[in-house]
Design a protein that fits this description.
By secondary structure, the protein is of the alpha+beta class. The chain is built from 24 helices and 14 strands. The chain folds into 5 domains: about 90 residues, DNA Primase, Chain A; about 120 residues, DNA primase, catalytic core, N-terminal domain (DNA primase DNAg catalytic core, N-terminal domain), CATH 3.90.980; about 120 residues, Dna Topoisomerase Vi A Subunit, Chain: A, domain 2, CATH 3.40.1360.10; about 50 residues, DnaG, RNA polymerase domain, helical bundle (Pheromone ER-1, Up-down Bundle); about 150 residues, DNAb Helicase, Chain A, CATH 1.10.860. A hairpin with a 4-residue loop joins β3 and β4. About 5% of the residues have low confidence.
Length: about 600
């Protein structure tokens, strides 16, 4: 059963993780006073407006409004779910994620990971011990693979037969269902199931944490399909995963570049020759999700294709997909191999050094784009050059605003014989979802309601929860946000050591979470000096008490007018009216 991750564990996790170190590992930060800055990774900008606070353990962009905790950053930057982000941070901190009873945190996929890991071990054992494994071993040896590299990639063997895996792992309805959901066995036919992978060399596909999430199987012999992949499952989405990326990260301390190839054997064969930075898409064209994952790992990506027509068409599709992701500092290149060759055969034929020279001298994205378009027009004629501009302009419009885009426009202008401004400026491209504009700072303090002011002050300075003798009658005020303020105050009182990031994470997954994030995103707009925050906090609560009294007075006056008020209610009304008069007199005297 799925279980909720305890709040105290999330608190401890955020205590151990430094958001500055986490973000700096993905986006280089520079010290700016007591905080750190960078150009925002969530929108294009030339002047840094992305700030990370070590004190608050929070990030905030004054340009696009992005903000959150370490967990939120991983969710948005690495495109992870909440639970995956927790597990990612926990793994770095050396912690095991505990679970409470209940299903609040969504589906628990751990049994699926366990089942696939058992399947991977089963296939690896079969490669060593099954009587028919000799042909698989011989095939791997013929491809130049050693036992060591096979172990690195967890290569195994699915023996012939309809139900080997079922017999090994499918004992009981629950385990059989897990095999079905993870795509390891077929859907029932006439109340019978059979293994999906039979008489194939097995390549486990691992996620960024090294967990087996799917398999690819290469048939031995002439059967079809030559390669068979796991289907889409709750934990495997082929448009997001890259074969070999986990192994590359494991083998290399720093990944200078990534080479995107087409097959499992290409990745493994290149690794055998010491080229440990190859990855493969899983039977699909390169997607936007692939590209973001690639560029989060390194700034240079080389796409490797066959040199025939089909390979160049695939390369062009990759280029079109890559254009919106080519922010300044990123580089994409294209390597087209000789006809009839693939990385596996070519690296064995010419060796590592020669193959790496091909990588180093691969074609830059800019050259590939213009070379292909120029081949389609007559560059010796005015009409041909005009046609080139028309073909290129919509492609350049996909590029994010920045220096690279400007240089590409200059190059196009030079080719067609115009000044850059004569081409016209294509609309700016922003690959990230638009965010609502931030509220202007000027006058922000005056527009804050007492409830929002009190919540904002508690987020800025949680120690205010320890202030003694604060009014409490505001808790009876019926207004949006009162329950949130009450719960917030209760948490910071009972747990005085919590920081802002930990406090906000208590509400993740609840409707109030978005409200807290919005409040915190403008929290720095409150210009109150720290020395005056306690007085302002008391004042906000006192104003809420007054509003509660006004609300209660209106209700009691209505009951008195209809003759429904009790004697006790009449006395209460008299008390409220008397207090209201005293407050008015005091304010008149102070004015």
């Amino acid at each position: 059963m799925a279980g909720k991750i305890p709040a105290h564990f999330i608190d401890e996790l955020l205590n151990r993780v430094d958001i500055v170190d986490l973000i700096n590992s993905r986006v280089p930060l520079k010290k700016a006073g007591k905080d750190y800055q960078a150009c925002c990774p969530f929108h294009n900008e030339k002047t840094p407006s992305f700030t990370v606070s070590r004190e608050k353990q929070f990030y905030h962009c004054f340009g696009c409004g992005a903000h959150g905790t370490a967990i939120g950053f991983l969710m948005e930057y690495d495109n992870l779910g909440f639970v995956d982000s927790i597990e990612e941070l926990a793994g770095k901190a050396g912690l095991e994620v505990p679970r409470e009873g209940g299903s609040d945190s969504g589906p628990d996929y751990r049994p699926f990971y366990d089942t696939l890991e058992q399947a991977a071990r089963f296939y690896q054992w079969q490669l060593r011990k099954h009587p028919d494994a000799g042909k698989a071993v011989n095939y791997l040896k013929q491809r130049g693979l050693t036992g060591e590299i096979s172990v690195d990639f967890g290569i195994g063997y699915a023996p012939p037969g309809w139900d080997n895996l079922i017999k090994q792992l499918g004992q009981g309805d629950k385990q059989l269902e897990r095999l079905r959901v993870t795509g390891m066995i077929s859907e029932p036919e006439a109340d019978k199931c059979y293994d999906r992978f039979r008489d194939r060399i097995m390549f486990p596909i691992r996620n960024h944490r090294g967990q087996t999430i799917a398999f690819g199987g290469r048939i031995l012999g002439d059967g079809k399909p030559k390669y068979l992949n796991s289907p889409e499952t709750p934990i495997f989405h082929k448009g997001k995963e890259l074969y070999g990326l986990y192994e590359a990260r494991k083998a290399l301390r720093k990944i200078e570049r990534l080479l995107v190839v087409e097959g499992y054997m290409d990745v493994v064969a290149l690794a055998q020759f010491g080229i440990r930075y190859a990855v493969a898409t899983l039977g699909t064209a390169t997607t936007a999700e692939h590209l973001e994952r690639l560029f989060r790992t390194t700034n240079e990506v080389i796409f490797c294709f066959d040199g025939d027509r089909a390979g160049r068409d695939a390369g062009w599709k990759a280029l079109e997909t890559a254009l919106p992701h080519m922010r300044d500092g990123r580089e994409a290149r294209f390597l087209f191999l000789p006809d009839g060759e693939d990385p596996d055969t070519l690296v064995r034929k010419e060796g590592r050094e020669t193959f790496e020279q091909r990588i180093i001298h691969s074609t830059p994205l800019s050259s590939f784009l213009f070379d292909k378009l120029e081949a389609e027009v007559d560059m010796d004629s005015l009409g041909g050059r005009a046609r080139l501009a028309e073909l290129a302009k919509p492609l350049l419009a996909k590029l994010p605003t920045g220096l690279f885009r400007e240089m590409m426009q200059q190059r196009l202008a030079k080719k067609v014989g115009l000044e850059t401004h004569q081409l016209g400026n294509p609309p700016a491209n922003d690959t990230h979802k638009p965010r609502p504009p931030l509220r202007k700072k000027q006058g922000a303090q005056q527009t804050l309601s007492p409830i929002r002011r009190a919540i904002t002050l508690l987020l800025i300075k949680p120690e205010l929860g320890q202030v003694a003798d604060i009014p409490t009658e505001w808790r009876d005020f019926r207004a949006p946000g009162i329950n949130l303020l009450s719960q917030l105050l209760e948490i910071v009182r009972n747990q005085p050591n919590l920081r802002t990031a930990q406090i906000i994470e208590r509400w993740r997954g609840k409707p109030e979470y978005s409200h807290l994030e919005k409040i915190w995103s403008t929290a720095t707009e409150l210009p109150t000096p720290e020395s005056g925050m306690e007085m302002e906090f008391r004042g906000a609560l006192q104003r809420l008490v007054e509003q509660q009294h006004e609300q209660e007075t209106t209700q009691l006056l209505e009951r008195v007018s209809t003759g429904d008020a009790s004697e006790q209610e009449k006395q209460r009304l008299g008390q409220l009216l008397s207090e209201k008069q005293k407050i008015a007199d005091l304010r008149r005297r102070s004015d």
